[in-house]
Design brief:
Strand order of the largest sheet: 4-12-11-10-7-5-6
Number of strands: 17
Order of helices and strands: HEEEHHHEHEHHEHEEEHEEEHHEEHEEEH
CATH superfamily of the largest domain: Type I PLP-dependent aspartate aminotransferase-like (Major domain)
CATH class of the largest domain: Alpha Beta
Bound molecules: pyridoxal-5'-phosphate
Number of helices: 13
Largest sheet: 7 strands, mixed
Radius of gyration: 21 Å
Number of domains: 2
CATH architecture of the largest domain: 3-Layer(aba) Sandwich
Structural class: alpha/beta
């Protein structure tokens, strides 16, 4: 039995057949079971911010596992208290702000939906077309893609979608019944599509005026991915709620909800819960990730800006979007065969849309590695016809 047969026989068929069987990672590199090495430019989809097997993370996880791995939320632990303190400090949150620790991006958004419904009971939620907020039923109800939503309708919650960037549509949708507006500062799954700073600022003003919470989903963009801790701070807005996950644990599953000011007190005792959320293993790992990632954020911004300039000059590239190390390379041909050829050449990327390749590499990536990819992309685009089918 091949590993592909093994996988297909025993795991739910929701992800298709995996591209490779990976057995080991170190820094920005991973190896498959045949010993082939790949430069991991996707980082587990914007997760492995420090690459693989980072020594600080390995040490923190091992230390905590040997000290105290899990306690129920009837108890707290030093890493949990310290992580909450660090996250609030990094969020520049006003006094009274608080943190909820969870396990994933979807769970963070589920929790934010509950905050919204406590803020304005039975209120509607406004989300943006092309948005991705997760696959659990509440988060799915805010996710735009019909193929993801339709098999599960009717979904919970009353949601109105508006086109991103259209202020008139937002103004009309934000009536007095709206509990919250959910936005991503950069729509990652939509193909790394940044929202205008002016739009985000207007969204902040309108939600204030109409009494709706502004929830910023930083699941993909947070934890330094754009060269700043959060992507939304570039627009100089202060949200009511921020959700995060992915990069925060550097590969260990953890998510967080930050309630700014009064939003932190919307859920009372017994109104929410989680067994694993914020357990000592997750919190200690996230603390190690935060400590090691923060000094790299200047590099993330600089490398990303330089790399985007290089990628723009590759024949066949029509646009390069993104900030820091969250990048989409829009090409003049189907992206699937290009992604496959890049993988065969030793580069892990993702065909995030039918015509775009996404890069979300570890922050430890260096210029030489980035440049090697640029050359590989040029070579692949030189070999694959623009008319190739996906
Ligand atoms: C912006 C955004 N929100 C939420 C999610 C869902 O996160 P998770 O897969 O951890 O549930 C994702 C995952 O891709 C995301 O990109």
């Amino acid at each position: 039995m091949t590993w592909q047969d093994d996988y297909t026989a025993r795991l739910f068929g929701i992800f298709g057949v995996p591209l490779r069987l990976l057995v080991r990672g170190e820094g920005p590199w991973v190896w498959d079971e045949s010993g082939n090495r790949y430069l991991d430019l996707l980082g587990g989809i914007a997760v492995n911010v420090l690459g693989h097997a980072h020594p600080d993370v390995v040490a923190a996880l091992g230390r905590q596992a040997a000290t105290l791995g899990h306690v129920s939320n009837f108890f707290t632990s030093p890493p949990q208290l310290e992580l909450a303190r660090r996250l609030l400090e990094l969020s520049d949150a006003p006094p009274g702000s608080k943190v909820l620790l969870v396990n994933s991006g979807s769970e963070a958004n589920e929790s934010a939906i509950k905050l919204a419904l406590r803020h304005r009971p039975r209120g509607r939620i406004v989300a943006l077309e092309s948005a991705f907020h997760g696959r659990t039923l509440g988060a799915l109800s805010l996710t735009w893609k019909p193929a993801y939503r339709e098999p599960f309708e009717p979904l919970p919650g009353r949601v109105t979608f508006v086109p991103p960037g259209d202020l008139n549509a937002l103004d009309a949708a934000l009536d007095g019944e709206v509990a919250a507006l959910f936005v991503e500062a950069i729509q990652g799954e939509a193909g790394v599509r940044p929202l205008d700073a002016a739009y985000l600022r207007a969204a902040r003003t309108l939600t204030h005026e109409r009494g709706a919470l502004l929830v910023v989903d930083e699941v993909q963009t947070g934890a330094g991915r754009t060269g700043e801790w959060f992507a939304h701070t570039a627009a100089r807005i202060v949200p009511d709620v921020v959700t995060m996950a992915k990069g925060l644990g550097g590969g260990f599953p953890i998510g967080a909800v930050i309630g700014y000011g009064p939003a932190a007190d919307l859920l009372g005792p017994g109104q929410h819960g989680t067994t694993f959320g914020g357990n000592p293993l997750a919190a200690a790992t996230a603390l190690a990730v935060v400590d090691a990632a923060l000094p790299l954020l200047g590099h993330v911004g600089e490398l990303g800006a330089w790399w985007r300039g290089e990628l723009e000059r590759v024949p066949g590239v029509v646009e390069v979007r993104g900030r820091g190390l969250l990048i989409a390379v829009e090409i003049d041909r189907p992206s699937a065969p290009v992604q496959r050829a890049l993988l065969d050449a030793g580069y892990i990327t993702n065909n995030v849309t039918p015509t775009a390749i996404r890069l979300a590499p570890p922050y430890i990536l260096d210029r030489e590695q980035a440049a090697a990819f640029t050359s590989a992309l040029a070579a692949v685009l030189g070999q694959i016809e623009p008319t190739a089918t996906a």
